[in-house]
């Protein structure tokens, strides 16, 4: 924990991670849980210091590792269904990963590298308005991953505006770009982007002191987001459905996250002892 860390962001990340699980379980209320996606995308704009190489280690190495993990899972599921072992593979997975949630990591890397170019108020606000106008005229791109990235661009730009110039510019950027979308491209995603991003701005504007609990929530949120499909797969294999599947997946995702965090902490301690 650092002196300037906002504990409320870590609490928000944890709740959003649970919402992430609920959304991907496709249980009732998943549209509300979908608010967690733009919320987390805004949080991705938290200033990341370091070189491009250090950002790649932080974001692309986990992307490669978990793509391998879920590639093995995809192959196992294909063999179980007597399908070609690599029939699930698509070329766009080089950019999105082998499971639907992993696209966030390379997108976050790209955003962290390009963020300094958009920190001028005219750059962040202007780009957001141009993107919203383009989406209103041309619609959402169908090609993967550009359709996913188009959903994430506005929350990212709003987050950049917040950290570069404060909440006033961020709110103006969000409201104006959302107005363009609501007028030019009526779609359920518009409300999702608006509300999820607004919740993230509120969370970042209100500060709470960092605590051991908030630090734990922050760590768990990362593990939950990365590993939660494993919990959903287990629930589905047990023929659990509907709301019960979502509840089961949330609980099991937290358990998996605790186990992964404990294993990682143990590995770090062993490395320190050997050094």
Task: Give a verbal description of the structure.
The protein is mainly α and 275 residues long. It is 75% helix and 0% strand. The protein has twelve helices and no strands. It has helices at 7-24, 30-33, 36-43, 52-80, 93-96, 104-114, 121-138, 146-165, 167-184, 188-205, 212-237, 242-274. Helix 1 (7-24) packs across helix 12 (242-274), helix 4 (52-80) runs antiparallel to helix 6 (104-114) and helix 7 (121-138) packs antiparallel against helix 8 (146-165). The model has no long low-confidence stretch (mean pLDDT 90).
Distance between the termini: 23 Å
The gross shape turns out to be globular
Largest sheet: none
Strand content: under 5%
Helix-strand blueprint:
Elements: H1 7-24, H2 30-33, H3 36-43, H4 52-80, H5 93-96, H6 104-114, H7 121-138, H8 146-165, H9 167-184, H10 188-205, H11 212-237, H12 242-274
Name some characteristics of this structure:
275 residues; single chain; 12 helices; 75% helix; 0% strand
Give me a quick take on this structure.
The chain is an all-alpha fold.
């Amino acid at each position: 924990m650092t002196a300037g860390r906002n504990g409320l962001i870590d609490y928000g990340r944890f709740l959003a991670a649970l919402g992430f699980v609920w959304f991907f379980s496709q249980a009732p209320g998943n549209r509300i849980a979908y608010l967690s996606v733009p919320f987390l995308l805004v949080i991705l704009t938290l200033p990341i210091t370091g070189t491009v190489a250090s950002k790649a280690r932080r974001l692309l190495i986990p992307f490669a590792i978990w793509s391998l993990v879920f590639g093995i899972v995809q192959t196992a599921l294909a063999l179980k269904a007597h399908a070609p072992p690599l029939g699930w593979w698509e070329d766009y997975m080089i950019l999105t990963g082998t499971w639907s949630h992993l696209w966030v990591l390379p997108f976050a890397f790209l955003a962290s590298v390009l963020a300094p170019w958009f920190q001028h108020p005219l750059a962040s606000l202007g780009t957001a308005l141009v993107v919203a106008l383009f989406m209103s005229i041309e619609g959402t791109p169908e090609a993967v991953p550009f359709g996913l990235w188009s959903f994430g661009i506005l929350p990212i730009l709003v987050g950049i505006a917040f950290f570069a110039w404060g909440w006033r510019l961020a709110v103006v950027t969000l409201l104006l770009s959302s107005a363009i979308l609501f007028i030019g491209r009526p779609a359920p995603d518009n409300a999702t982007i608006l509300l999820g991003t607004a919740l993230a701005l509120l969370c970042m504007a209100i500060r709470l002191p960092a605590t051991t609990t908030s630090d734990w929530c922050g760590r768990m949120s990362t593990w939950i987001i990365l590993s939660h499909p494993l919990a959903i797969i287990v629930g589905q294999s047990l023929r659990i459905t509907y709301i019960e599947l979502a509840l089961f997946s949330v609980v099991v995702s937290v358990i998996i996250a605790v186990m992964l965090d404990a294993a990682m902490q143990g590995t770090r301690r062993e490395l320190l002892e050997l050094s």
